[in-house]
Amino acid sequence: MYAGPIICDIPGWGQEFHKAADASPLINDQNIIFSVHIYTSAYDSQTGTPTSANLDYLAASGRPCIVGEFGSGGNGSADWSGLVDHAKTLGWPVIGWAWNGDGTKRNPMNMISPFWGARNACGTSTFTTSSYFNTIYNKL
Q1: Which end of the chain is more exposed for a tag (fewer CB within 10 A), N or C?
Q2: Nearest alpha carbon to residue 134 among 116, 110, 117, 118
């Protein structure tokens, strides 16, 4: 039986902070770590555009958390950079896991090029960092 930690994205594409916090007492396994996603388009159905208070609410659940995905991609008004900074003050590890495959031509959030979903990328053996890589790298 596996006894190590398991990282789980919280509901709503990793952005439903209140739902995850409210559900936390129902999860008996203490090895579950919540992963949140923070973007300009982030949205919590109970509060709208997330603020640091949303992260504080989730932190108060006592569940270990990480920021598993973040960035400036998307349309919206969430202060993604400020929220990532606030998560760091809560002691949450911050990683940028979405190297490729997270975004489209319309809304690219891929740290390497070409995009894996592109038909011409199937036979590609050489990838390069994209401009979006710098957004993630500089924040980390």
Answers
A1: N
A2: 110
Residue 1 within a domain: no
Give the domain extent around 48.
6-139
Count: domains in the chain: 1
pLDDT tens-digit profile of 60-116? 999 999 999 898 877 889 999 999 999 999 999 999 876 666 666 655 678 887 776
Q: Are 62 and 117 in contact (CB under 8 A)?
A: no
| 3-state class percentages of the chain: helix first, strand second, coil last, to nearest 5 | 30, 20, 50
Q: What is the C-alpha to C-alpha distance for residues 98 and 116, in angstroms, rounded to an integer?
A: 12
Residue 16: closest CA among 53, 57, 46, 56 = 46
Whole-angstrom Cα distance, residue 49 to residue 64? 23
The reply to whether 113 falls in a domain is yes
Q: Is the pLDDT of residue 121 over 60?
A: no
CATH of the domain at 27: 3.20.20.80
Given a cut of 90, whether residue 59 has pLDDT beyond it is yes
